[in-house]
Each structure stands twice: as C-alpha cells, then as structure tokens.
Amino acid sequence: MIDSNVVDALASRVLGPEHKSVPPQAWGLGIREFLATRPTLSQFQTPLLTLDDGRLQHNVDVMATWAEKSGVKLAPHGKTTMAPTLWRRQLESGAWAITLATIWQVQTARSFGVDRIMLANALVDPVGLTWLARELDEHPEFEFVCWADGLDTVRAMNRILDNATGTRPVDIVVELGGEHGRTGARTIEEARSVAKAVADSPRLNLVGVGGYEGALSHDRSDSGLDAVRTYLDAVGALHRELDAAGLYSGTAVITAGGSAYQDLVVERLASFADEDGARGVPTSVVLRSGAYIIHDDGFYSQISPMIPARSDDALTSAMHGWARVVSRPEPGLALLDAGKRDLPFDEGLPTPQSIDAAEVTALNDQHAFLRFPDDDAAAPIGSVVRLGLSHPCTAFDKWRLIPVIDDADAEDPRVVDLVHTFF
Predict the structure, then answer these.
(1) Cβ contacts of 163-169, under 8 Å, gap ≥ 24
(2) Which domains does the chain have, with CATH numbers?
(3) What pLDDT sits at residue 154?
(4) Does the predicted model carry a pTM greater than 0.70?
C-alpha cells in the first residue's frame, strides 16, 4: 500500500536552517543521526509545533477499531497532514486507501508508492489527467478513483482522455451535493444524468456515489444533524437507483464522512455494505475522515462524535504549539513569538494550557497576544507556554518538519522522530 523504503529514506535527509526551529547543532546532520543523540524538546527553538507519539497511535488505533466494528472501510484524507510517515501508520493499521484533494497531492503520494488513492474532487486539469492516464497504464496495480458532479465535467474528462496515451478507464464516483453546500450535483436527477454519462463513456467507469456532508452543517444541533441525515439518506437512495439500473461497472463504493459526522455516516449508510453482492452489486462503504489522527483542542474536540462526552474510547489531541514570552509591555499582557505563520487560527485561536485564566486574544503574523489577570509572576520573559490548537489541516501546512515527542506532559519530552510534510 505504501513503499516503506521510500518513507524510511526521509530519515536520511540532512537538516538545515530551512527547517524551522530545528536547533543549529543539528544542521548538517541526517535526521537519523540527529535522533540518535536523543534530543529533547528544550533543545529546539520557539515557536514550535509538536506531535505526541503515543496520542497519534492511540487515535489511529481507536479509529481503526471503530471502523472495523462498524463494518466500514477507512480512506483517511491525507491532505490533513500531507505526511507519508503518518499515512503509513494509517495504512498499516488497516486503512483501505488514502484520500487526497488535488492531482499534485496524488502525484506526491504516488512518489511514495501509495497504490490505492481516492481523489475527492473532480479532475479536469489537462496536464494532471494526461499524467494519470499514463500512470494507470504503466502501473496496473495502481487503483484510483475520482469524482464527477456535472455533465460538463464528464465531457471535459472524455475530451482530455481521448487525446491522452493509455487505454485504461478512469474510475468515477458521482458526487451528490446539497443546497448551500460545496461541490456536487444538487439533485438526484442531475446525479443520475451524470452517472449515465459516465457509464456510457469508454474512457470512464462508474464505481460509486458519495460526497461531503460536513459542508451542510457546522454544529451538532438538532437541525444540523437532521440536515446531515437527510443528505446521507439521499446518497443511499442514489446508490440504490444506480444499482437497480445496472450502471455500475462491477463493484461500487459509497463514500462520505469527514471527522465531524462519521457516526451519522455509519448510522445511515453502513447497512449498504455488501461486499459479497448478496443484495446487488458488491458494495463497500468508505469513510474519508482525516483529522482524527491528530484531533485537536478546538473545533474537533467539540463537534467530533469521538470525544469523552460521546464515546467511551475517545480521541485525544496529538498536536501542541510551544511559544516563548518575548515582551511584557503592560500589565496582564504578554507577547509570544508564535503567530499566523506558525499556528492555525481559522477555526479558533490557540488556547494556553500552562497558565491559569489566560487567553490568546489575537494573532499577528509572528506574535500572539496572551492576556491574563494582572500578575507579575505569570508568564515571565523567556518562559515557554504550551498551546492547545484547533484544526490540524491548517496547522500542518505551516511546517515542513514537525518534531514527534514521546510525551507532551513530561517536563522535557524526548524527540523521537521528525515528520516531513509536503505542501
């Protein structure tokens, strides 16, 4: 599923000043060589983003077990981390595939030997689709599926593929959307027309239906959950129609599920899983949850079904920010050396975890405003503040190399790995 030799080769890369916050004494050393010195967190510069090794594995194990018990497959969204080292953890724990969002991300995954990929998007880029046609022909073991939500998309794909080398058809999932949603055919009638056009094309195979329910709600209110359930029921109804019409090319997938409503996907769609084809076309239900491996202390810690208030085996935040106090310009205010270039802020600001009654009220490019009750003893110059973060998708893209520590709660955690990202 992934080439471990290529992933392992990342540990031979040489460290340098281009790797943010890595200590100067590590420059010129290979990663494996540096880790052999048993570095600790205090040796790194601030600002810093870290991952917790034990929490990462806990989250991977929790989700893998939950999916297996629910009778669904996992194709975690790799765009969350764009980290082949972490993709390998997920695949080795039973993930069926890796999901990605752009053809460039697919190409990156292929360079690491990922051999089953779902592109949760339409592919009408001529350069990318031409590359894909060649890749599919040259690598018969490579399994790939992308989405289509309109007749114009199908026409564009056919036109590009007619001029590309390669004869192997591209597998297509018809995407159903919803009112005020993101992409996706807005009605079942439109989706049915797209499916028929795909099935009629010699360059395309119809292999499933799906979409993204997270665009239809951003909370767990009754109305929000009802909107998600109604949408998922429509996805199921579309699958039944296409199966009855005999449009599938041989097997089918039903795919949905981000990291906020995967419980509802199981509730409404898991019963469609029928890999033996006893009730129609052999069908797999595939979840694309991506954020679960990291989780967070913000958005997902509130909305996910897999938190302590909703689950006996909950996910836990595996990422933290670390920032140093560099200014105390007035009582009750400290400026930290981490800002928008270092930490996520689109789904909530960082939250201080090592100072009582403190709050981050704003971020500039390279500073965080930390406010707290007037106390001269709090947050002295040079002290380091641990920060809880919200939304891993916009945390990882700010770091090309992320230290993995053995225990975020230890006094001076040991750094046990350095994870490369590709953004």
Answers:
(1) 163/130, 164/129, 164/130, 164/133, 164/134, 165/130, 165/133, 165/134, 165/137, 166/133, 166/134, 166/136, 166/137, 167/137, 168/133, 168/136, 168/137, 168/140, 169/201, 169/202, 169/203, 169/204, 169/205, 169/249
(2) 4-52+314-420 (2.40.37.20), 115-288 (3.20.20.10)
(3) 98
(4) yes
